[in-house]
Fold:
Amino acid sequence: MTDPSTPASPAAPDAAGPEYSRIVRVSEFGNGSRVHSLSATPAERAALARRFGLRALTLLDASVRIMPEAAGCLVTGTIVADLVQPCAATAEDVPAHIETEFSVRFLRGLDAIDEEELELSEADCDLLPLEDERIDLGEVVAQTLALNLDPYPRVPDADARLREMGVLSEGEAGPFAALKGLKIGQKSGD
Structure:
């Protein structure tokens, strides 16, 4: 039988802690059937927007499942976010919608494990240390958001706008641009 969806409770604000924190202790993991529904508050979204250089973060929701394992736990879930980034070329607003799945494994004593002992394929999830017998689901969601941001967001007509402003493209300004107008076989002065 599955537990009803349970929201993880926000942690008390901490000046040195993460902007979006949802702590779950090992004793609260359950059997893996519980779904944690997380929604960032307006203040948390504003703080995350500042952290990641966003113009706005209007939605950040997640659905997370924790599956206990002998050496820690596996956290899987989905995040949904609506945000606005500045265009890398024109500084205009670039709205974006992110909906992605994630998988993170938390292991006890990860710092003590020799890298050669870990055999992971590309399909394996990220590994994080399980410290103090607790995990921060909010920070997992925040880091997943950061990993899925477009590193060079651009408005659809950025190239045309840059040309209008007189900015040369890579091909026009590159080292071979001067050779572009030359024709092979012509002598200089012809």
Notes: The chain has a mean pLDDT of 80. Residues 42-52 form the longest helix (11 residues).
